[in-house]
Amino acid sequence: MALMGAAMELQEMSMGTAFAVGAPAVALGGLCLFLINGYVIEQRRRRSPLPPLPEVPGLPVIGNLLQLKEKKPHMTFARWAKTYGPIYSIKTGSNTIVVLNNNDVAKEAMVTRFSSISTRKLTKALSILTFNKCMVATSDYDDFHKTVKRHILTSVLGPNAQKRHRCHRDTLIANIVKDFHAHVKDYGLQPVNFRNIFESELFGLAMKEAIGSDVESIYMEELGKLSRHEIFTVLVKDPMEGAIDVDWRDFFPYLKWIPNRTFEMKIEKMDFRRQAVMKALIMEQRKRVASGEEKNSYFDYLLTEGKSLTEKQIAMLLWEVIIETSDTTLVTSEWAMYELAKNPKMQDRLYQEIHGVCGSDKITEEKLCQLPFLSAVFHETLRKYSPAPVIPLRFAHEDTELGGYFVPAGSEIVINIYGCNMDENQWETPKEWNPERFLDKKYDQNDMHKTMAFGGGRRMCAGSLQAMLIACTSIGRLVQEFEWRLKDGEEEDVDIVGLTTQKLHPMHAIIRLRN
Ligand code: HEM
Questions:
Q1: Ligand 1 atom with the shortest distance to the CA of 386
Q2: Is 412:123 a contact under the CB 8 Å cutoff?
Q3: What pLDDT was estimated at residue 12?
């Protein structure tokens, strides 16, 4: 979700195009419909006994768009919560957005009022990139969603599936550790780029889960031969950037007939390249299956269990595993290692905990339940640097209420996880990274889920188990083997970027072998 840049685009947009096609009447017609709609909503609200939502004042027509110019809307929303309270409404063009900034109203939206707020609202860019909601994470809560969620849980992300994919996670950890050892051997105390190593291994795991094997390169008629790195760019990096691209027409649906070719061509090109790569990868796997070779992969599973799915739907569902596996777990692990490298006391506490439980054995997934401080490190990192600071937009498809206020049908709902996790009524000194906050009083595993970083209710993240297993085992093993310290000047370098709060600049740390 990104409203950023919208204001800039608004200033730059050429209304000349619209008028050149001689269609002011259409615009006027659209505007009239919009005003009538506003009038009807106001009448419904007056009939409701509930009060209207507090509103953040904005400008006529564009509403609050100009106030969202900075690229971190979740931070602006949290700031507004201090003035307007935990729930308020804003206007982005002709859209009404209800913003929720504390745990009570967030839970009410995700659980109690779920039946009225279960659909997703996608931007134009996301509609193209998700092939019109053809993914578990972006579909509406309908039969398609239930079927494909069952598929992804049974084949990839549920507890039994995760047991079957254990060997890939063990290989990932072994490769990461080997790469860091090689760095120490070859470059000694020169800083290491954590992200380079971790990102590449996670992508390998994603490919194995999705199609059964990692790739080195691939050839296709449309794009020629692509290296592994180029495949990563086409499948993960570009779409992550495209997902936050803004089409100003998203804010003015009554003007959607005006062409915006630059935007459309950019996203369509991204989609074309992604589809071409997925098609080529699938073709290779079809040949493998035809030769009688079976693999434990989502592709093999969908071939037998997803017979009603089209070729394009299968490609989208496989791509979903690739993109979701490759990004959020990296974001969390990198921030956790950054904080541990910055806090020698916390790093030492973690090392001592692991040493006490594992002795000289390497940490494994079986040991995680005996390591509460490691779990606290993971959840505190999710709290402070939630990879999804705002839950993908929900949409109220009928009139409902939240926090005691009237919420009209057609409102978009922003659940600001960042705002909830920075709420001073819920968290003491929320800006501080302090895993001990989870262990202060009587240790309770449920407290960890107070961060809501994985969402909640029926649309809760399907990949939370995998994310926890990979992040905790990697963080634990890297602290067990190496002592971490930030490169000089690294401490101040904490800005974020993108859809999933990635660290703006990759972390560079100096690592030393323990023992
Ligand atoms: C630290 C890592 C992760 C975080 C913080 C995270 C967070 C989230 C959030 C906030 C949602 C939206 C929940 C909602 O709408 O209420 C979500 C949904 C989802 N996530 Fe994750 N996620 C992570 C890792 C993963 C991984 C590794 C996968 C694996 C492929 C994954 C797959 C999904 C799916 C399929 C959904 C859609 C669930 C549904 O709509 O029913 N996630 N995630």
A1: 5
A2: no
A3: 36
| Closest Cα to atom 31 of ligand 1 | 463
Q: How many helices (H) and strands (E) does the chain have?
A: 19, 14
Helix or strand run (H / E) with residue 413: strand 412-415
User: Per-residue pLDDT tens for 18-65?
Assistant: 334 344 444 455 555 555 556 556 666 667 779 999 999 999 999 999
Beta strands in 262-306 (DSSP E): none
> What count of Cα atoms within 13 Å lies in the side-chain half-sphere of residue 228?
12
Counting beta carbons within 10 angstroms of the beta carbon of residue 290, is it exposed (0 to 12), middle (13 to 18) or buried (19 or more)?
exposed
Per-residue model confidence (pLDDT) at position 243: 83
User: Could you give the CA distance from residue 240 to residue 500 in angstroms, rounded to a whole number?
Assistant: 9
Determine the distance separating the centroid of ligand 1 and the alpha carbon of 463, expressed in angstroms: 5
User: Do the strands 482-486 and 508-513 form a parallel or antiparallel pair, or are they unpaired?
Assistant: antiparallel
- The structure tokens 């796997």 sit at 285
Assess contact for 416 and 77: CB atoms under 8 A. yes
217-239 confidence digits (pLDDT tens): 999 999 999 999 999 999 999 99
From the alpha carbon of 149, which atom of ligand 1 is closest? 41
Q: Tokens 């990879």 identify what position? A: 387
Q: 472: annotated binding-site residue?
A: no
The letter for the amino acid at 503 is: K
Backbone angles phi, psi at 235, to 5 degrees: -85, -30
Amino acid at residue number 9:
E
First to last CA, the chain: 46
Structure tokens at 51: 């009060």
Q: What are the helix (H) ranges across 153-225?
A: 159-164, 166-187, 194-211
Provide Rg for the chain, Cα atoms.
24
The span from the CA of 401 to the CA of 348, in Å, is: 48
Angle at 187 between CA 181 and CA 188, to 5 degrees: 75
Residue in the structure block whose two tokens are 């969908």: 302
Q: At what angle do helices 194-211 and 298-305 cross, to 10 degrees?
A: 30
Pocket of ligand 1 (CB under 6 A): 110, 136-137, 149, 152, 157, 321, 324-325, 328-329, 332, 382, 387-388, 391-392, 453-456, 459-463, 466-467
Q: Distance of CA 471 to CAs 325, 328, 329, 377, Å?
A: 12, 10, 6, 10
Q: How far is Cα of residue 115 from the mean position of the Cα atoms in its chain?
A: 23
- The total of other beta-carbon atoms located within 10 Å of residue 248's CB is 23
| Nearest of 309, 283, 325, 349 to residue 462 by alpha carbon | 325
Stretch (H or E) spanning 91: strand 87-92
Asked if residues 211 and 281 have their Cβ atoms less than 8 Å apart, the reply is yes
